[in-house]
Structures are given as C-alpha cells and as structure tokens.
Write a structure and sequence with these properties.
Radius of gyration: 18 Å
CATH architecture of the largest domain: Alpha-Beta Barrel
Shape: globular
Order of helices and strands: EEHEHEHEHHEHEHEHEHHEE
Number of domains: 2
CATH class of the largest domain: Alpha Beta
Strand order of the largest sheet: 1-2-3-4-5-6-7-8
CATH topology of the largest domain: TIM Barrel
Strand content: 15-25%
C-alpha cells in the first residue's frame, strides 16, 4: 500500500511530498461539489487507517530518494484530521524531518475538536478551507456530514489562531454560481479579519471535479480578491520548479490516483524515463488524458 506519494509541484507551497492518511478509500466529513476525488457519502472516520510505523518508514525512504523537498504534506483521500493518531504521527514526523516544513491540507473542521487542535499546533503550516461564511452557500458547496454552523467554525478558527505560532493559511475555492459574488466576499473579508490568518489563497476549479460545476475566470478571481482587505492574498497559480524527479510506474499511478497532473507539471518535473513510463501507461489504458478549461491533465483511467 503506497501511503507516501510525489513529489508534486504544489502551486502554493513548493515541492511537496504527500502522505495519504486514507489510502484505501475516500474518507471525508465533506462531499464538496468541486472535489477532485470521486463523490462519496460523508463520514467522520477513516476505514483501516495506515500504521504510523509504516508511514514513517515510507517517508524516510522517500526523503532519501527525493531531494529538495519543501514541505511534507499531510493530506488524504478526504480529510486528514480524521486520522485517529494525528498528534502522535505529527510528533514522529517532526523528529525525522530536517529542512522541510510540515504542512496539513484540511477542510477546517478539525479546529472544532480540541484534541485535533493540539496536533495542529505542532505543524508548521496549517491550511484551512473557508469557501463561504454564508450558511446556505456553505451547505451547498461543502455538503458536510453533520450540522456544522459556519459561525461556530469561524469562531473556532479564530481561537486556534490565537494559540498557534505557525503559519495559518485560509483557502477560498470559488465555484461559478455558488460563492462568486461581491456579497460573499464582503462577508468572507469580515470573517478573515476576525480570524487573522497569515495568508488567504483564492483559487477556482482547475482539475477534474467530482460533480458538474464550473470554474470562474481569472479576471473575476482578481476582482474578488480585492475585496479581501488587510490580509496578504494569493491567487493560486502554478509554482514553477527546476527540480526533475524519477518515478516508477507504480509511483506515477499512485500520484495520479490522488491528484491528476497537468501537462505542464509532467513537462517540468518528470524525468525522461518517467515520461516514457507515463506514455506506456497511456498506451496500456491505465492512465487517461482529460481537458479542464482547456488544460490537459493526466489521471488514472476509470
């Protein structure tokens, strides 16, 4: 079972070595309309979570193989804060990492749980999603497992910020027809000023989504971003890297299963041998090409 994947050239955080805390199936308490994983019923549990010792062994091996890693990223086929031994895992990772920062990509609901907050405080960079602070929009986009009140979520994020010494990044993913209005962003700006993150990332759909929803154009993203006042704001764009990595066929499939890669990602970061493997996987029907808003992506064939 491949738990560690990548490195992947992250648009926002540099070269990322990923750790999938739910490698067997999607496990998330949200079923977001824009999710790049297939749709699934929300859950509060990870089925058969991977063993910590196995995770650490794979991370150590990957760090020996791949140089110039910027971040070790806790992620999942779903929500990583559902991992039952999160704080213990974070402690172990902090013991073995060197120059890399530890990053978690979370939907934000973990801050409602004091035990999870204790684990998050030990991570260098915590990325939380906040797509809307208007309850009806929040419900439509994120489609959560339980009756989460977005006002309570904002309060919990602000409380976490007060006790967190690392970098807090909030992410807003804009979906056409859902949260792409001035009123949405005026409300978000008020919440952001209350939470006080280090940075706000604004993006839109740029990978094949689970459901039939659409991205917004760059011009609208820019105009909406101007409504976020007093907090550094980043419109997520590809992060170019000169690092080239060699992947086996299994590593390519493992990576594409978790996150489709654009043609530009492959061109920049795959070695010639890895590109040849990718072409073989395409010919064998194990990998497929797809277009998202005119950009070619490679993903595992269904």
């Amino acid at each position: 079972m491949n738990i560690v994947f990548g490195p992947i050239n992250s648009r926002r955080f540099g070269m990322s070595l990923g750790i999938d805390l739910s490698p067997n199936e999607k496990s998330c308490n949200f079923d977001c309309v824009y999710c790049e994983l297939k749709g699934a019923k929300p859950t509060n549990f990870i089925k058969d979570p991977p063993n910590i010792d196995k995770i650490i062994t794979q991370v150590k091996n990957a760090l020996k193989t791949h140089q110039n890693i910027d971040v070790i990223t806790l992620t999942a086929n779903g929500e990583p804060t559902l991992y039952p031994q999160l704080e213990t895992l974070v402690d172990r990772l902090n013991e073995i990492k060197t120059t890399q920062k530890l990053l978690i990509l979370s939907n934000g609901t973990g801050v409602l749980n004091p035990k999870i907050c204790d684990a998050l405080k030990k991570i260098n960079i915590v990325k939380l999603s906040l797509d809307s602070v208007i309850q009806s929009t929040f419900n439509k986009i994120d489609r959560h497992k339980s009756d989460i009140k977005v006002a309570n979520l904002v309060e919990a994020m602000a409380k976490f910020r007060e006790n967190f010494s690392g970098e807090l990044v909030l992410e807003i993913l804009v979906v056409a027809g859902f949260n792409d209005t001035k009123d949405e962003f005026i409300a978000l700006n008020e919440a952001i000023n209350f939470i006080k993150p280090n940075r706000v990332d604004i993006s839109t759909i740029d990978r094949p989504p689970a459901y039939i929803v659409k991205a917004v154009d760059l011009g609208l993203l820019k105009s909406l971003s101007e409504l976020i006042i007093s907090t550094p704001t980043l419109i997520a764009k590809p992060h170019k890297s000169q690092n080239v990595y060699e992947f086996s066929k299994d590593e390519i499939l493992s990576t594409l299963k978790r996150r489709p890669q654009s043609e530009a990602n492959v061109s920049e970061n795959f070695s010639q041998k890895s590109k040849a493997y990718l072409n073989e996987l395409l010919k064998d029907g194990l990998v497929a090409e797809c277009l998202v808003a005119g950009v070619k992506f490679y993903k595992v064939a269904k």
